[in-house]
What does this fold into?
Amino acid sequence: MAIESGKSKKSPAESLPFDKEHYRELKRKQVIRLLFFYLGPLIVLIIFFSIQYSAMVAESRRLHLTAIAENQSNTLNLFLSERIVNLDNLIDDPRFQHPPSSANLQIYLDRLKMNSQTFVDIGYFDSSGIQVAYAGPYPSLEKVDYSSEDWFRRLKQSDENFIITDIYLGFRQIPHFTIAVSRYIEGELIILRATLDPGNIYEYMRSLEGANEVFISIVNEDGYYQLVTPHIGTPLESSSIVPPETPRLGAETLKIDGSRITYAYSWLRLADWALIVQPSVPQRGGFFSGFNLRIYIIAAAMILLIILVIAFRANKLVEMQMETDRTRAQLEHASKLASVGELAAGIAHEINNPLAVINEEAGLIKDYMNPEFGETMDPKRLEEHLNSIQQSVFRCRDITHKLLRFVRKSDVELKTHNINDIIDGVVDGLLMREMQVSNIEIDKDYGRNMPSILTDRNQLQQVILNIINNGVDALEGRPGTITIKTRTENNHVEIAISDTGKGIKPGDIEKLFMPFFTTKEVGKGTGLGLSVSYGIIKSLGGEIKVDSTVGRGSEFTIILPMKPGK
It folds into this structure.
């Protein structure tokens, strides 16, 4: 088959050249595509690094709080150990009198206060729990029976020779806690007890390194404050934070009154207390704090700039597409004109036949009206001749209307059509006379009950006409057959147009749809026919396949969906 071909740029399936709504939709898709490719990775990276940074900051905060908690608890353990040692040294001093007088006990208290101002008072107890001697600000406590006090019973039953109590009110009804050591003197249990001021201990804890960064509190295993920052709570109050017993050192996060609080804790070795530290400044939301906020501001500026670039780029792409569509429409129109040019002889003959009839009928009427012939014509015969003229005029009108409708520039108009009717419109309306003159047989093998498809009639007729014209040229003036078959396959319809011409060389098949490629003689082809046809079929969501054997002919198969894709 002698062919003229070329592959035009792929148009979108829904391409409607010069239609404003189409280009608005195209611009919207371009903007979405560019936003996805340009902004998508940037936003993913921003979110990723923001999450990583927040996690790193959170972990750093946890480690820092844990270090402070561990340092504070070690210091408190050392402090309590020193206080126990102070009492041990006092009771084990050979000069210590058993039982001591209240005056001597006051001297011992002054000595203890030289070691730590946290000591409040000191008392000496016999095995029955009676405080036989006392020195301190509450002299009424001397001779008081402590045998029913919890700390006394626990120390008496303990394998350890010391005890550190939780904070309690006791007989004095003032919060304090007790450190007591026990000894057996000549087989009798004696206990030396000192009370410590929680306020002084808290101030001591506040003076340690890192304490100004956190709120410090100490809770017992039941969750009651022993020491606490004043605006958080008061001693003996229930704490909203109760650390787990294991591990002994760690950091946790919990919600309190809708706010997430991160705290670190460390359980003491000498008492069943947990030292808790939490940030002294409110914890800002991870995603909108500090460094993250700066990242978001910079990212927002970058995103705004990218959006402006994308808007400019999308406009340019749409303008390029409009120019491409305009060029394609011009090529399609040029191809139509070229196809009509190839049919000029047949079309001229089609018009000449009715014109000849008009001329003959007009001549007859004129003769009847000539007095020299002496003929008369009754109205009935005159009406017959006029009807013949009118039918010939209608025939000419139909031919010119079909021709004009075919070559006229028009926008794509998708409507429901029967594929067999579209083919008949080309073959019977434009080609039949040329086929008869050229002794070419048209063999129609239409599928039965062919479904209607959504397509553009004018464009599809142009494709069919281009392919059939190429088949006619391939016959090179010899008699032959052009076969047109239609059938359905899944959700597609197929139009197969084959000829018995000379066929296409294998090396030329891959060039069929290249612009301006033609196997016709110079001056006989534009090289646009198959190029434009390929673009039209692609724009309708279909494809064209070619099968050819040199010397036997070629077959072009057009595959179209029932509805063009979007």
